[in-house]
Write a structure and sequence with these properties.
Layout lengths: L10 H19 L6 H9 L8 H12 L4 H23 L8 E2 L2 E2 L1 H5 L1 H22 L6 H15 L4 H10 L7 H25 L5 H28 L2 H4 L5 H4 L5 H5 L1 H21 L5 H12 L4
Antiparallel strand pairs: 1-2
Helix pairs in contact: 1-3, 1-4, 2-6, 3-4, 3-9, 4-6, 4-9, 6-7, 7-9, 8-9, 9-10, 10-14, 10-15, 14-15
The chain binds geranylgeranyl diphosphate.
Length: 302
């Protein structure tokens, strides 16, 4: 699936181990409560689906910074809840209107539009509560406060909501490179950036290391959206788990429609290469982070 930097490193195995850890914690945090249907709808889009890429990045960031991944699991799971929330709302008819997500019917197709809106709202409010209630007491309260502030920033008008708002306003319009860059940065890269920063902040990383990991997160987050846009043109419903070609049909500005397929591929390769180099030049020796940068490029080449 991917190429690795260190010969003995098995990326698929490392990812699987982290995924199991994350899934078992999500299962624990998202036990069905009252009202039952609301919790079931919240679980439907969060449990047992998704690559868990963002949460895995948080755990690895903690390991690199000499921290304990256990301290990061609540924030990593909260991030997956926020991500699931954004996908539920993204699929609604008033947004991107998609009947499929992660290879199964979208949340609103199963629970109806009103309950899907509420499930997203509930996940968004519950996620920071998970951070507050489950992050170990040993974590400094100032750090916890900063973490929650950054989480809310990534979720709000300066993060994915802001990115989505500009994206929607730009449909069927010609926009400039600055505006287009804003959409990708906010809508997608913010969550990757937060993923890396969460692990580093909770592990007492130096400012230098925090900056490098932040940059890496921004680069691969941006690259991830380019890859998603390339796949939207090239892949099938089965491969994507959602309806392909919807973005261009909806008059959305995608990396491919904006810059053309050749530049999209070049920029994707340049960004992931520069993310890898950033780690190597700063002596951050993580086969997993390098493997993930490789994976983002490789997944469009399959
Ligand atoms: C946060 C309040 C609030 C609202 C959300 C709808 C919306 C506002 C934002 C849309 C953000 C969005 C859907 C961006 C696309 C990001 C993207 C490429 C998602 C796919 O991520 P994967 O492939 O998904 O990691 P899996 O299924 O593996 O988790």
């Amino acid at each position: 699936m991917v190429s690795f930097i260190s010969e003995n490193f098995d990326l698929a195995r490392a990812v699987e181990q982290d995924k199991q850890l994350i899934n078992s914690h999500l299962e624990n945090y998202l036990k069905v409560g009252q009202p039952k249907t609301l919790w079931k709808a919240m679980r439907y889009s969060t449990i047992s689906c998704g690559k868990r890429l963002r949460a895995i990045l948080s755990l690895e960031s903690a390991r690199i910074c000499g921290g304990n991944p256990e301290n990061v699991l609540p924030a990593a799971c909260a991030l997956e809840m926020l991500h699931a929330q954004s996908l539920i709302h993204d699929d609604l008819p008033c947004m991107d209107d998609d009947d499929f997500r992660r290879g199964k019917p979208s949340n609103h197709k199963v629970y109806g539009e009103a309950m899907a809106v509420l499930a997203g709202d509930a996940l968004l409010a519950y996620a920071p509560q998970v951070i507050i209630e489950h992050t170990p007491d040993s974590v400094d309260k100032k750090v916890l406060f900063q973490l929650i502030n950054e989480f809310l920033h990534a979720a709000g008008p300066g993060g994915i909501v802001g990115g989505q708002a500009v994206d929607i306003q730009s449909e069927n319009k010609t926009i400039g490179t600055g505006e287009f860059d804003y959409i990708i940065t906010r809508k997608t890269a913010e969550l990757f950036k937060f993923a890396l920063r969460a692990g580093a902040l909770l592990s007492g990383a130096s400012n230098e290391k925090l900056d490098v990991l932040t940059e890496y997160g921004k680069k691969i987050g941006y690259a991830f959206q380019i890859a998603d846009d390339i796949l939207d043109v090239e892949a099938t419903l089965q491969e994507l788990g959602k309806t392909p070609g919807k973005d261009s049909k909806a008059g959305k500005n995608t990396y491919v429609s904006f810059y053309g397929p050749d530049k999209a591929m070049r920029d994707l390769e340049d960004l992931t290469r520069s993310a890898r180099e950033l780690l190597i030049n700063n002596n951050i020796n993580s086969s997993l982070l390098i493997g993930i940068a490789d994976y983002i490029t490789q997944k469009v080449k399959k």
